[in-house]
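#struct-pred

JT: dropping the chains for the assembly here, can someone run the whole complex?
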Amino acid sequence: MSISLYNSLTRRIQPFSPLDPRRVTMYLCGPTVYNYVHIGNARGPVVFDVLARLLRRHYPQVVYARNITDVDDKINAAALEQGVPISAITDRFAAAYREDMAGLGIGPPDIEPHATAHIGEIVAMIQSLIAGGHAYAAEGHVLFNVDAYPAYGALSGRDTEELIAGARVEIAPYKQNPADFVLWKPSTPELPGWDSPWGRGRPGWHIECSAMSAAHLGETIDIHAGGIDLLFPHHENEIAQSTCAHGGKMFARWWMHNGMLTFDGRKMSKSLGNVLLVRELLRRHPPEALRLLLLRGHYRQPLDWSDSAIAQAISTLDGWYRVLRDLAAVALPAGPLPVPARLEAALCDDLNTPQALAELAVLADAARQHGSAEGKAELLGGGALLGLLQQDPQAWFQRGGDEVDGERVERLLEERRAARAARDFARADAIRSELTAMGVAIEDSAQGTRWSAAKT
RNA sequence: GGCCAGGUGGCAGAGUGGUCAUGCAGCGGCCUGCAAAGCCGCGUACGCCGGUUCGAUUCCGACCUUGGCCUCCA
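RK: done, full complex below.
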């Protein structure tokens, strides 16, 4: 089954094939670690985690890099404000980021490069850009010269003329062309900085991704991914730098961009202040429902976040886990879990996760009706490719159980069983009400009464 | 203003030139002491106006409208 992926560069879906069929290289723009990430920041990591899972099935090796940007003016501002070295900020939030991503069921990347560990590569890349006439030093800064790269704007569909006309920022006097962007900037003594041929300074925003991508994945990579809001200027600038630094070699063969997560119809963003932290959501809701929610829309479309959407995701998972719970005693066939063809086909079609989830629903139905080991295996196998349905059903249904006194529940259930046996239904219903008040839902079945204490 | 992506049933959200999305919610029935779950069934969805076509939600054009980028941003 071949994979087709939309390429922002060509604006069309193309059959995917890596440069080296034995080794796929993929880079995702990671966070700048100066505070906790919000759920919008997690969409790309979740979506591209599914892509990584899919690619690993198709190719012998996938090298997936997701960077940490740990040098940046916002980090500096936070460090100055708190009177601590920047590493105190970046270490803390990089660790928090890993925890948050793991909480959403995202597998760790193969490589997690840090910008500060690549200053040498960054300086070298800037030197080669200057040597090639693609960059120039001015007043302690080094700037990329967009006029020296005629293809500038190809990714975002802009030309430099219109960029200048529409520029809403004040243009620094040392720029030759207003669209030129900073590769290196000088640091004052209180700011972090590294020695360089242009004095003590620090890298500009875009250069670190170019340097780290080349250092770990090579000069030409297969897939470069990120949020659509990074398409310009970040990715446009990365292309310009990398291409010019590597003698015109293509930088990334596929550019993939996830749509924005919205909240009340507006982009969730720190500057608008309408953010929900992943950390907070993980504490309040079942993590798997959050992941499911992020996969319920096609990755290129906007996706609106809401409490009712979370509730829907939980209900959906309730149904699927109910099937798995009913099949708990059914032994799985030996060997690895199968991957259902229709579900995989949906993912191969430009990562159509909504379609894949529809297929998963069909598989859940089939498993419930047939009660077979094969059905169970297919449901689990399909779920695994999406990073869903891998926990113990019992754990899913009793995830709020920390606050519930299990022994008391069992005692009440036994009492209710006796009342029902004596046909004292008034008493039985009173006990059920009591359990409901405790946040415990019950379900009578041929195998006895089940209970669940699930948080929303 | 420029560039880009959308507007699908109560909600979410795929998809297609001509019988099925899917999930959640709702309604009717079966089952159940009653619930819950399960099972069976139900609801004339494709922004608006033209055009192409035997036939358009799906293709083309105009219009209305929502959002993203053009500044930090996943």
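JT: nice. Chain A has three domains: 4-262, 306-396, 401-452. Chain A has a mean pLDDT of 93.
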